[in-house]
Design a protein that fits this description.
Elements (H helix, E strand, L loop, with lengths): L1 H16 L14 E2 L41 E7 L9 E7 L4 H6 L6 H8 L3 H15 L12 H14 L3 H8 L3 H23 L5 H15 L4 E12 L6 H4 L2 H7 L4 E9 L5 E9 L4 H6 L2 H7 L7 E3 L10 E2 L9 H27 L14 H17 L26 H16 L9
Parallel strand pairs: 4-7, 7-8
Antiparallel strand pairs: 1-6, 2-3, 4-5, 5-6
């Protein structure tokens, strides 16, 4: 009975630490933003830091359990000397569950069909080999006297498979012949390595030359000048958190699905090639898009004057600012305003398609995951980096994997935040109509 009382007291203390229960809007997890690792001003945000403990607290390493009896069938006794200077009579016995690795050995064999490998891991062998080479130094482990280390290829494969399929760790464990907690640890380790090593290379804000190229491509496709990217926000479902529950409650998804839903946000800017140039991950699902933007590193970049002369196009859930170009939201639009909204919708489609491919490739984004809330941003960030790698290397995605997005837009409280931006938008709309680039849908 005293133990139960202590648990209740501890739980109450934790709730007090996060600011007083369900009414608190503060995030119970960390926020990951890609600009942290680039040459941009560091925002005043609760920046992501990888938790030093990767495994689940209540689980022990299944492949390293010591003990003599009670093991399940197919337990194998391994005996090894503890050191070279050790007496022959001083030996350690390690019981290791014998698991089948036939599936992984088949996939990693040279004669395994390329199409099947691509369907399993969402990328071809060459891209997978590049990924292993890039991460090898960070994820490789040394052999010990008791066992050989898990190879780098298998470590990366466990993570990629888990992200691609969203399979429960129990099934991933059986497929790769590893312990459940081992698979969980591998996923977090590889995702952290992707974030630390590959995000600065494959997910970064464009430099001046690249920004000019983006503007030229967007203007050639839509007629809207100065567009450097398109922004969109999607929601990632999560298990109901133990703290700040109301902050993560997603009312719109709950009403549509008739099932209580909780989520965190993934806000990203997409270039003309469908690759992400900025991400902000981890704010609670009840937070509207404009508030997520206000708390992002991209907003810090704009406040420092680094977005001058550039537009980021957003939907109706984003406010019109000096650097965010949003559509007209009022009723009874003029022809020029209709024409402008059409072009914004065409540009926004670039981001919607990119997010649809992101969630289609990495099915773990479509379902609630076993990953702890504080570790989830780095996993989602790794998915974005892997998306960019696949896009840059021309990895085709099976059309059947495409995910139809269901993210509802919310109208910001202050839809127009700049009179100068209002005039600039009116000028763009006027030029689109009178230059013959407006289209005819509104006639």
């Amino acid at each position: 009975m005293p133990k139960a009382t202590n648990r209740r007291r501890k739980r109450g203390a934790d709730e007090e630490d996060v600011g007083g229960g369900s009414g608190n809007k503060r995030s119970a997890t960390s926020v990951l933003t890609s600009l942290d690792v680039n040459d941009a001003p560091r925002p005043e945000l609760p920046l992501f830091q990888l938790n030093g403990r990767h495994g689940e607290d209540e689980e022990e390493e299944e492949e390293e359990v010591t003990g003599g009896g009670g093991g399940s069938s197919s337990a194998l006794a391994v005996v090894a000397a503890a050191g070279s200077g050790q007496s022959p009579h001083q030996q350690r016995r390690l019981w290791v569950k014998d698991r089948s690795r036939a599936w992984w050995e088949q996939c990693s064999s040279a004669d395994y069909p390329e199409a099947d490998f691509r369907a399993a891991f969402r990328m071809g062998r060459s891209t997978f080999a590049m990924l292993c080479d890039a991460l090898g130094a960070a994820v490789a482990k040394e052999d010990t006297a008791l066992r050989a280390a898990i190879p780098v290829r298998q470590r990366v494969a466990v993570c990629v498979w888990r992200l691609a399929t969203g399979e429960p760790l129990r099934l991933v464990s059986k497929r790769f012949g590893l312990g459940i907690s081992t698979c969980h640890k591998l996923v977090l380790e590889v995702c952290a390595a992707i974030r630390n090593l590959l995000m600065p290379r494959f997910l970064r804000w464009p430099d001046a030359a690249a920004a000019d190229a983006f503007k030229a491509r967007f203007q050639a496709e839509s007629g809207v000048p100065g567009v450097v990217g398109v922004i969109y926000t999607t929601h990632i479902p999560i298990i109901a958190p133990k703290v700040s529950v109301a902050a993560y409650f997603n009312r719109r998804h709950t009403e549509r699905n008739h099932k209580t839903s909780y989520s965190i946000t993934l806000q990203g800017v997409v270039g003309p090639d469908g690759a992400f140039t900025d991400v902000c991950i981890g704010w609670p699902g009840s937070m509207p898009d404009d508030q997520v933007l206000d708390r992002s590193a991209l907003q810090q970049r704009a406040a420092a004057g680094m977005m001058a002369g550039s537009w980021v196009v957003g939907g109706a859930s984003f406010p019109l600012t000096d650097w965010v170009l949003a559509p007209y939201a009022q009723p009874n639009l003029t022809w020029a305003q209709h024409a402008f909204n059409e072009k914004v919708a065409e540009l926004r489609r670039v981001a919607v398609d990119a997010f649809a491919r992101l969630k289609g490739r990495w099915a773990c984004l479509q379902k609630r995951t076993e990953v702890k809330l504080q570790d989830l941003p780095v996993v989602l960030g790794a998915c974005c980096v892997l998306h960019n790698i696949c896009e840059s290397r021309g990895e085709e995605m099976d059309p059947g994997l495409r995910c139809e997005l269901a993210d509802d837009e919310t109208v910001p409280e202050n839809p127009v935040r700049s009179d100068g931006a209002r005039k600039a938008r009116d000028d763009i709309a006027h030029n689109l109509l009178h230059s013959g680039l407006a289209g005819t849908k509104f006639f």
